[in-house]
Amino acid sequence: MTPDRPVGIVLTGGASTRMGVDKATLVVDGKPLVVRVADALWEASCHPVECQGGDPVAIAEYGLDAHPDAQPGGGPVAAIRDALQRHAGSNVVVAACDLVDLDAGTVGAVLEAAGDDADVAVATTDGERHLLAWWRAGSAERLDEALDAGVRSFRGALERLETTDVAVAPAAVRNLNSPTDVDDRG
After folding, report:
1. Whole-number Å distance between alpha carbons of 13 and 93
2. Which of 95, 122, 137, 184 is buried most, with the most CB atoms less than 10 Å from its CB?
3. What residues contact residue 166 under an 8 Å CB cut-off, 6+ apart?
4. Residue 40 in contact with residue 9, Cβ under 8 Å?
């Protein structure tokens, strides 16, 4: 894999407790969320595109590979670390499966901001960091250190790394967490 063609990873291992159903396979506007996000990564030149965590049988029905989390229920930091370890020689773009309106242009903006000085380039709106980020090859060790120190949150892990914030349109990183979010989507 070359740095200009990062691996795309859709995070699909969340418990979806507020949604009440598996968000990865939730159909919105005729398309499962996992497919919507995978398409955005693919269209932004990520290759291959695969999923981390979740139900591999259900995800395979959409033509995507899912890799199990080494620590099921370990949260996004552990899942990202798993993907980085699996693709140790590649840069990786990670996106949450519930980014309902993610598009290739937004992923491309994150890719363009990835520089030589940063471990991570992360999508940001109004100072809030979202679960769409480019990770430099070799960052898994830094996430291991964060996990060993008890860091479980995505934003907490970013605080321990050299991070570039990338301003993106809020609609592009809107996530769906509950049935109300789906109903309110307009």
Report:
1. 16
2. 95
3. 109, 110, 113, 121, 122, 123, 124
4. no
What are the φ and ψ backbone dihedral angles of 108, each rounded to 5 degrees? -60, -40
Q: Which segment of 14-23, 45-54, 63-72 scores lowest on mean pLDDT?
A: 14-23
The whole-angstrom separation of Cα 161 and Cα 135 is 10
Q: What token pair was written down for 153?
A: 């949150």
Using CA atoms, how far apart are residues 82 and 54, in angstroms rounded to an integer? Answer: 13
Q: Is 159 within 8 Å of 88 (Cβ atoms)?
A: no
pLDDT of residue 2: 42
Cα(123)–Cα(170) distance, integer angstroms: 10
Instruction: Please give the Cα distance from 165 to 125 (Å, whole number).
Output: 9
Residue 161, CB half-sphere, CA atoms under 13 Å: how many?
A: 29
Rounded CA-CA distance 155/168 in Å is 17
For range 82-100, the mean pLDDT = 95
State the residue for tokens 């960052």: 139
In 3-state terms, what secondary structure has residue 169?
coil
